[in-house]
Records
---
Amino acid sequence: MEVKVAFNKRTEVLSIDDEETVEGLLKVMDLFPDSHIVIRGKSPIPLTERIREGDELRIVKVASGG
């Protein structure tokens, strides 16, 4: 299936497995799940959420520290 993903000021269409999860998408993109949030619409979605055909997702890199 194909999904549109926006990350680092770029948007691209990716072909992924039909049963792919958010965590799997991040792995395909070589991104660490602990360092990124995936957003569908205006809501963050959990790592275990399955991606749906035609999704338009935005990936945001998060930083933490003290």
---
Amino acid sequence: MRTLRFKQAGISLAVITTAIGLTGCGSESSPSPSPAASAATTVASAAPAAETTKAEKITLSFFTNNSDRSVGQGKLEQELIDAYMKNNPNITIKVETLSPDPQYQDKIKVYNASNQLPDIISAWGNTNFLKPLVNNNALAEINKDDLKNMGFIPSSLDGFSFDGKLYGIPRNSDFWVLYYNKKVFADNGLQVPKTEAELISVFDKLKAKKIVPIAMDGREAWTSGLWFDTLLQRASGTWDTSKKAMDRSGSYKDPATMEAAKAMQRWVKAGAFGDGFLNQDYGAARNMFGQGKAAMFMMGEWEMGMAADTNFPEDVRNNIGAFPIPSIEGGKGSADDLTAWFGGGYAVSNNSKHKKEAIAFLEWMFRPDGWAKGVWQNGITFPAQKYDQYLTGKETEVQKDLTKIFNNSKTYSGTVAQDKFSSDTQKTFYDSIQKLEGSKMTPEEFANGIDEAADKSAKATK
């Protein structure tokens, strides 16, 4: 799962600088960003030689969850690796990929159990993923001072830190939205909904035209976990309901949990996701939206790269927008409250024979002119570093929409609930959500079930 950690105080400076930097962005007819290759070309010319003894030949293993190397983060990741190897001919970086994320994380558990982690791994800044690795002394410590001039947003490193030590580097600032096809909306006389009632009205009009309202990855329950977090805030008006339930100063038996669960079932019964969405995975949902077969797609901001994905028709790419999850019936929260967190990144094996070289590569990769510039200017995602200096005035419409959502939000969630559960209780959380979506569990049963899981999790992680 694309998990991150976000603190409101930590992002305020980034919000301000982004808002200032966006003044004077291009018009609606602005062209798409330049190809990712341009970013790789820029960073390649600046790649420093790694410090090795007598140009020793070194091979680093790089295990990533970005399996698609032709688009998005996987493409930029590979181009940065290639650029580094070109300028450091004594370094070879061998890439292994595995997706989706649950399978990747299972493989990490196998590597950890056998003390054979690859030199560099994709990692997530949350307790569930990192703590077993840290407890096993499996991750190398990274010197925070070496990152101080790289523009990381304050608190972005917190999720990768334990007992004052840093064990990873975050790559993205992530948040949860609804993407939509502006042409489909316009052709059907639809406006962007701000309330649940308006959203369900949109569902009805789209279904009447035999258009699936929302493409949804229902098979991988982490997506529904983020949807639940958002609706729980919409019901209660605060992110504290979930936080208190997880630290046991509160409970998921709070009435707001049941209201959020009822809202989830209302969306499903209203036909929000079409038939069989619980068997539909991420790739199928993304393709359904990208091919114009669904009007909306519920996913994280990292999918802004769809606007530059040539696998999709031009009339879809040029008409992708985004809006926040609407308020819900009887809820106290609003669309100005954003499920947002610092996401995945990278860590280095403590058992690596080449820790110094592995860390040196990551530090080079996260030079501001590297990852941050590349993901922003190629319309891939929001970096965990300040990027206002890389605004071009040619941002895509979806980049502009997402920036407005990010900047206009009044509160931010921080680490999402599912990332606070222990491994075994997280499965209970996921199973409960999917049973709720499939009407195999009532909202009350759901609230009781995940509260019991939260209690077990808190005891297990003490």
---
Amino acid sequence: MQMVKIQIPDRGERGKALVEMGRRGRVICLPEDTFIVPEPALQLLQSLGVQFQELGRGGHDYAEKALRDAAAAKI
């Protein structure tokens, strides 16, 4: 399954999106209002009218690398 890195800039939409995506699957939260979600979550966001920006795509290894990079940035 493809994982997609997205950014949701609007705070109100971000809260609504996180609740709905979390009910349906895994959401990886990264710094700067950035998230990694399964590809089907994009359709959900569109149906909710949530504006988002796609930043990248990849498999599970892509998601793991993004988590490692975010953790390393804190050091």
